[in-house]
Each structure stands twice: as C-alpha cells, then as structure tokens.
Amino acid sequence: MNALTRSAAAYWNSSIGKKLVVAVTGLAMVVFLAGHLTGNMLIYAGKEAFDEYAKFLHEAGHGALIWVARAGLLVVLVLHVWATILLTRENKAARQAYQYKATIQASKSSRIMIWSGLTVLAFIVFHILHFTVRTNSHLAEIAKESPYEMVIAGFSGGFLQALVVLFYVIAMTLLCSHISHGVASMFQTLGFRSKKAASLIQCISLGYAVVIWVGFVSIPVAILLGFVK
C-alpha cells in the first residue's frame, strides 16, 4: 500500500473524512436534482418538448453520456449512504460513551436522517425499475414510441397507479425533509456556514427543498388528476 492509498484510507476512517464525503456527494445530488427537475418540468410543455428532451439525453455522446452519468450517480449514492451509515454508528457509540445533551440531540437528528435516507434509497430503486429499467412490459413498449406517453401511463389509470403516486409523494416528502436538514449541514461541513450566515443558509435549504418537493410531486399528481394527458 503506497503513501497516497494509506493517506486516503486514514482520511476515510476519520469522522472529518466521512463528513466531507457526505457533504460532497450530497452537493452532487443536490445539483443533479435541480437539473433532473428542470428537465422533467418539460412534461408541462407537451409531448413534443418532453420527447425531444428524452431523445437528447439518450443520444448525447453517442448514447454513452447518459450511462456515464448513471454510473457516476450510482457511485455518489453508494458513497453517500455508506458514509452516512458509518457516521450514524459512530454517533451512536459516542452517545453511549458520553451522555451529553448535545450529543443526544445530534444522535436523534442522525437517526431521522438515516431512516429517511434509506426510505428514499428504496424509492430510488423503485423509480429506476419503474421508468429506467422498465420492468413493466407495458410501459417498456410505450416508451419505444414516446417517453412522454410512458410517463403519462405510469401515473394514470386505476388504483395501482394511485398507490404509485402516493408512494412518490411520501418518498419526495421524506427526501425534501432530508434535504432541508442536509443542505444546511453540507454548508457547515464545507466551511461556508457562520453565525451570521446561519439563518440565510437555513432559508436557502428550506426554500430549495420546497421547490424540489412542489416540482416533483406536482407531476404525478397532475397526471393522476388528469390535468396532464
């Protein structure tokens, strides 16, 4: 093992190193969500605009770019979840060793974050199976003709689609709860949070979470209610 590898391993094994990994990967996902929502909102512009957007994504870089992006996001997600779980275990051990109020409060916050994060992870897996892998053969066939029609079919119909929409709403609510706490923590870990800027950063975190929630939740709900056809 060379010096660089040893240094990287030592940094990863430290709490500061894992917190930085959580912050950087969190920032990457925050940027991704903003871009993903911007593209998805084209559903309101109609079939042609949304299908052109989907075509661009799948043809960029001769079809390779989207797979590079997916692989990168997978690595980011795994690192984020892994580092968060390790930090949660460390916080639990610290709580048991030091029964201070601040430590207990931090542990409670961490427990909420870890469970909301794991629920969102389950949602991401479902979302990928639903619209990316398309395990539903009916949706897979529709997607060949029009990604727009695939999204409409995925959220409209009967009782099953209503349950899917409900799951999306619950998952996005948990995700945005996670974001509203996580973005503020990310600023702090990266050294951009001070006492003077704390209130502003908290407002930014909450505002970003609200925008993401309204944007992503509005799409399945609007389709289910027939506002988008």
Structure description:
With 229 residues, the chain is mainly α. It has a single domain (16-224), classed as Fumarate reductase/succinate dehydrogenase, transmembrane subunit (3 helical TM bundles of succinate and fumarate reductases), CATH 1.20.1300.10. Helix content is 83%, strand content 0%. The chain is built from 9 helices and no strands. The chain has helices at 3-13, 15-40, 47-59, 65-97, 101-132, 137-145, 147-155, 159-189, 198-224. α1 (3-13) packs across α2. The longest helix is centred in the middle third of the chain and has 33 residues, at 65-97. The chain is globular and about 50 Å long. Residues 100-109 have low confidence and may be disordered.
Which terms summarize this structure?
3 helical TM bundles of succinate and fumarate reductases, 229 residues, mainly alpha, globular
What is the level-2 CATH architecture name? Answer: Up-down Bundle
What structural class do the secondary elements suggest? mainly alpha
Whole-number total of structural domains: 1
CATH class: Mainly Alpha
Low-confidence stretches: 100-109
Percent helix, as a range, is over 70%
Order of helices and strands: HHHHHHHHH
Name the CATH superfamily classification. Answer: Fumarate reductase/succinate dehydrogenase, transmembrane subunit
Number of alpha- plus pi-helical segments: 9
- CATH-defined fold name: 3 helical TM bundles of succinate and fumarate reductases
Strand content range: under 5%
Shape: globular
Summed up, what is this model?
This protein is mainly alpha-helical and 229 residues long.
